[in-house]
Structure formats: structure tokens, C-alpha cells
Request: fold
Amino acid sequence: TIGDVTAANVAVVDDAFGVVERFWRTPEDFVDHAIGTLVWVEEELAGICYAAAVADRRAEIDVLTKPAFRQRGLGKLLVNGFVARCAARSVAPLWDCYTNNVGSMALCNAIGFRAPAPPYSFFTIPRRP
Reply:
């Protein structure tokens, strides 16, 4: 079953994924602005697609699927639902990920997202053991 993040389920979403106040100030802010789309398998919350940020009528996509539910097409279902919800709000969904994130790259290509320009170099400092 696919549905929206609501005031009634936002605590369950945060317990499952820990994203509610990671990017948004309050649970209410998340419900109102993150365009959160959920997928449930039977009674278990299996995945979420939401906007980590919305600015200038553009939404940065984040999609998470619990490991036990991966490789079932749920990510594609989530993103398609999120994209439809963005269209209803006149918001453009934007995909961003590291190019070495094979799963994310495969999903974005399967949905039809295309890069407007070639990837740019991104440098990181390695973590110390």
C-alpha cells in the first residue's frame, strides 16, 4: 500500500527511518513540506521517499527502503508516487547522489531522471579508523 506521511503516522516514520527532524525543524514541518510518500507491505512500513529540502519549487529526493524489502520494485513505486505528489504541488523533483551509489543510480535511471550535465569531481577526507 502506498500513502502519505501524515500527523497520524509521522512518529512511526521517524522510528523507522530517523529522518523527520534530520532535515526539517519539527514533525509538523515534515508532514507539511517534505511531500513524504510511504509504502507499507502488509502492516510494516517498508520505505519512504521524501524531500530532504524544498527551495525555489524544487524538491531534493531522498528514498529509503528497509533492507528486507529491497529488490522488490518498492523504490520505483515510492519515487513515482513522490513525483506525482510533486507535480500536484507544482514542485520539480531533483535527484542527487554520489555516482558510486550503484543502487541509487540504477533507480534514478529506471525512473527516467537524467543528469543536466556530466558529474563533477567531489573530494572527501577519509575517516580515520
